[in-house]
Amino acid sequence: MWRKIKRLFIIKTKFEVFLIVYALATGAVARGQVYLEQYPGFGGKLLFLACTGAVFMAGAKMIEAIDYHKSYGEDY
Fold this sequence. Notes:
The chain has helices at residues 2-7, 14-38, 42-72. It is mainly alpha-helical and 76 residues long.
């Protein structure tokens, strides 16, 4: 039973990564819009870019991890 529950928290395919990245991006854009309202001008735009940029970097690392996991197996 614990293996089935544990499986819910393990990302094994790129499709799962893309779903997670989509959810993160949706939240980042919502947070970025709040930043644009709170900090009008260049500062708000910079914070908006920081929110979305973090999602791109996290997504790239997750996709890379899936590729490494397929290449090197369970030990990596």
